[in-house]
UniProtKB/TrEMBL annotation:
Alphabetized UniProt keyword annotations: Oxidoreductase
Annotated source species: Oidiodendron maius (strain Zn)
PANTHER family: GH17980P-RELATED (PTHR42686:SF1)
NADP-dependent oxidoreductase domain span: 17-306
GO BP, one annotated term: dehydro-D-arabinono-1,4-lactone biosynthetic process
Classification via InterPro entries: AKR, NAD(P)_OxRdtase_dom_sf, NADP_OxRdtase_dom
Pfam name, any one: Aldo_ket_red
GO molecular function: D-arabinose 1-dehydrogenase [NAD(P)+] activity
Name this protein carries in UniProt: NADP-dependent oxidoreductase domain-containing protein
GO CC terms in record: cytosol
Signal peptide extent: none
Domain of life: Eukaryota
Length: 380
């Protein structure tokens, strides 16, 4: 990719409302991700208007597959590097392996640069910070800030499941470095099943100076769809207990009896809520999944159902980038379905997973009770 000029405009001024996540190109979610037509999928996503892509070295081999796609002549000839926002992560290596040392953070960033064949990365997150100490995470952010000063990274963020840990690190970063985090990414806590991000996190992130909040996994790693959770080559890692899975399955059947699809409804709900949240962060984004052209189309169609273009943006791009305002008519039509879903899941509404799981030691970064029966029962 060509060498651009690195700018430091606020991330919220350049980010798109919808982000395509790369976890679907991993062994966690697919038995053979190398067999996927990733070049064709990325090319199709670009044609639909996706310009922001999120992945992680932990999502093996997603970085390599996406790097191959973005460096392919068919894509390079059509899209400038400056049009694409590449987001990746550092710190998490495997289900039970983390390395937040400065040396590893530097190695991981440089490896990602090589994999994407680019001179810079747009956003780099410290991955799943609840598995390490706050000091580990803050120090790693400092290393990433050094990369920003060198022009190899544009924006820095942290990601994870546990909201209070994300808030804590965001405040500590601002206090220590005198500059806030550009972004926070939280997964599966602004969904049709769990709205804790909106209730417990957004105000605190705003107060910590965070510019962009990314709501990832709006389908809760494939739980909120028909057919059950995805099973990759590593087995069933999903943290949802059997009771929650059963209630979601019942709710999915109820929706289908009314001509509705759970995945589409859940996506519409998540997209609407992050954009209507109060206080709404300057950058409010939804990270969607998809490991096939069919899935990408389904996700884009769900977004079109709940979003519309403003008068100013109508026809500007001719694709999903124009859609940014929540449609009140669709929101009203979905309300009864959302309430019906929640009646069925009952007490499982706002149920949260334990992350990290009991027995994890954030100081040693190991399980206290190894070996474990299922080392993969850990989230993406």
């Amino acid at each position: 990719m060509s060498q651009p000029i690195i700018s430091r405009r606020p991330l919220s001024s350049i980010i798109s409302k919808l982000v395509l996540g790369g976890a679907g190109f991993s062994t966690q979610l697919h038995p053979d991700p190398a067999s996927l037509p990733v070049r064709d999928i990325v090319n199709h996503a670009l044609k639909l208007g996706f310009r922001t892509f999120d992945t992680s070295p932990y999502y093996t081999p997603s970085e390599e597959l996406l790097g191959d796609a973005f460096s392919h002549p068919d894509i390079v000839s059509r899209y400038k590097r400056s049009e694409i926002i590449l987001m990746t992560k550092v710190g998490r290596i495997a289900a039970l392996e983390f390395n937040y040392s400065p040396a590893w953070i530097r190695y991981s960033v440089n490896r990602s640069l090589d994999r994407f064949k680019t001179s810079y990365l747009d956003v780099v997150f410290c991955h799943d910070i609840e598995f390490v100490t706050d000091d580990d995470a803050v120090a790693a952010v400092g290393v990433l800030f050094d990369f920003v000063d060198q022009g190899k990274i544009r924006y820095v963020g942290v990601s994870g499941y546990t909201i209070d840990r994300l808030v804590s690190v965001a405040n500590l970063v601002k206090e220590k470095y005198g500059r806030p985090l550009d972004a926070v990414q939280n997964w599966a806590q602004l969904t049709i099943q769990n709205t804790r991000l909106e209730e417990e996190g957004l105000t605190k992130f705003r107060d910590a100076g965070v510019d962009c909040v990314f709501n990832s996994s709006p389908l809760c790693i494939g739980l909120l769809r028909s057919g059950g959770v995805p099973i990759g080559s590593l087995g069933d890692f999903h943290p949802a207990p059997p009771g929650l899975r059963e209630k979601v399955s019942q709710a999915s059947e109820w929706l289908e009896s009314r001509g509705e699809n759970l995945a589409s409804l859940a996506l519409r709900f998540a997209i609407a809520r992050i954009n209507l949240a109060s206080p709404r962060p300057p950058g409010a984004c939804t990270v969607l999944g998809g490991a096939s052209i069919w899935e990408i189309d389904a996700n884009a169609n769900a977004a079109r159902m709940i979003l519309e273009a403003s008068k100013e943006n109508a026809g500007q791009h001719g694709d999903i980038r124009d859609f940014e305002l929540v449609r009140s008519d669709r929101l009203e039509a979905d309300e009864e379905l959302v309430l019906g879903f929640r009646r069925i899941i009952g007490d499982w509404f706002n149920f949260g997973f334990t992350s990290p799981e009991a027995g994890w030691n954030i100081l040693t970064k190991k399980m206290n009770d190894q070996p474990r029966d299922n080392q993969y029962r850990s989230k993406l």
